[in-house]
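Recap slide: Sensor domain-containing protein, sequence and predicted structure.
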Amino acid sequence: MRIPARFVQVIAVAALPLALAACSPSSSDSGASAGKPQAKNLNAGLMTGTQLKKALAPASVFPSNLSVVPDGFSDSGDEFASPAGRDTAKPDCTKFENTTWLDVSGFKGGVSFAQGEYANKDETEEMVQELDVFQGTTGETVMRQIRAAAGACATFTDLNDHSKVKLSGSTTSGLGDDAYTMTMTSGHWENGTTLVAARVGNAVVTVTSTAGKDNGAANAAKLAGHLVDSLKAAGAKG
């Protein structure tokens, strides 16, 4: 249920130190470039994947009938990935049904990330948390594009049972610097899904919940609130 691109990103980040070592300049090259101005470090002050992992919500935040999904946790470690450009193609509405769905914005992820998943035994109820950190004002763009994708996907077809899925969203006040909550329902589903996106400085929180008879809404709000508070406490760069 993971999005493969996130794991490719982890591997690429892990390989970065080796690549940098192989490309390190000789002492003569270093001397020649010593007088050149240093490029601004756009990752300065941003949280790493290791730090974001510590900001994820603990088991106590989730309903007691949910437990850790063994392969549902990953992060980008201590290195930052190169920022990827945004895919400007028409949104793929079915991505809202993925375990992690931030890429509906056109961005595959941030320069660092951490994610985790909890579910019941038969996986009829699940909750997913993801934290992504972006350079500059990209986080604001991500939030705008999530809203735009939601507006373009008010109705779409489920890939599994080909039923009609309805998606509605609204701005959520009092949650981080910006927040947007969406609900997905279908006449073929026993319960709907609640999705929450929230921004805290350069970090974007994304939450999925199908836990609870209210389309997962209460548990989604609780989890998103905890993650926002956790990022604030960790000093997420604003």
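Residues 4-30+46-234 form a domain with the Protein Transport Mog1p; Chain A fold (CATH 3.40.1000.70).
The chain has a mean pLDDT of 89.
(End of recap.)
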